[in-house]
Amino acid sequence: MPTFLIADDHPLFRDALRTAVLKAWPEAVIHEADHVQALYQLVELHHDADLLLLDLSMPGSSGFDSLVHIRARHPQLPVVMVSGHEDAQLMRRAMEHGAFGYIPKSSDLATLGQALSTVLDGEPWFLPQALDQHTPSISEQERQVAARMAELTPQQAKVLQMVAAGLLNKQIAHDLGTSEATVKAHMSAVLRKLGATNRTEAVSMAHRLDLH
User: Fold this and answer.
1) pLDDT-based confidence at 212, cuts 50/70/90?
2) Which of 22, 169, 175, 176 is most buried by a 10 A CB count?
3) Within a 10 A sphere around the Cβ of 29, how many other Cβ atoms?
């Protein structure tokens, strides 16, 4: 009885993924999340799941950072990205950041089922253009930033994202239900782990994982 985790903020697409899963595996257990914080909690609770289907543009996430964090903490959990983006370089970046597959949201149910079956059989599933030798690989800078970002805790990553959105410590503390001192402590840890000298540099580094 396979267990699937589905993380997507669009109810209609979550329904489509659930339908594809249950058509192929009627007895499957499915757990869902509609934003990044719920995703991280879900993964902690069900880290032994057979597969995570992760939207590339999840609320609370910035580009590939959620993929990077999950792969660092739960390398045994296969992650397949699902996205409305069908750019070959994005697919290649997802693969090189540790995704085991990349399924365009335009795929029909038959293709979804085939992709999921392939991954559960232990084989990656990517469209041919992602594997084309002419598709650029990620830069060494992006690879290094991803390795440093992987060291952040989910809360530290959240604080960095809020700083990148232009929020002040007071606003971040209010939104997270914590103190300004705690926010400052998180940001100090972020700077140390990223090797950044200030908030601006840290934000610039994080932007390297955006969908550019």
Assistant:
1) low
2) 169
3) 14
Contact partners, residue 139, CB within 8 Å, separation at least 6: none
Q: 148: closest CA among 191, 96, 198?
A: 191
**Alpha-helix residue ranges (DSSP H) falling in the chain:** 11-24, 36-45, 65-73, 88-96, 109-120, 128-131, 140-149, 154-164, 169-176, 180-194, 199-206
Cβ distance 183 to 176 under 8 Å?
yes
Q: Tell me: the pLDDT tens digits for 64-75?
A: 989 999 999 999
Tokens of 46: 């069900």
Rounded Cα distance between 131 and 89, Å, is 10
Rounded to a whole number of angstroms, the CA Rg of the chain reads 17
Give the model confidence (pLDDT) of 154-208 as tens digits: 889 889 988 988 899 999 999 999 999 999 999 999 999 999 999 999 999 988 8
Both structure tokens of 156: 């530290």
Structure tokens at 66: 């959620």
CB contact at 8 A, 212 and 85: no
Residue in the block written with tokens 């909690």:
41
